Amino acid sequence: xxxxxxxxxxxxxxxxxxxxxxxxxxxxxxxxxxxxxxxxxxxxxxxxxxxxxxxxxxxxxxxxxxxxxxxxxxxxxxxxxxxxxxx
Length: 87
What we know:
Blueprint: H1 34-44, H2 76-79
């Protein structure tokens, strides 16, 4: 499970990270569960004074006790694409 911070949010400092592309690189947690990602993200988000692009944006995560009644959508073509011949 990973959490990619999108470009408009920018609430994790990139200071000290190896830059491959400053406009595309984003720092975010990788963990085994959504709850773990939320805990790590809460710990690393916010300004450290070393990256001027960081915004202090609130982060609110409420864990679901059950998925009953939750609707999940997906793009069938993306998850089960038709095989394409090698070109």
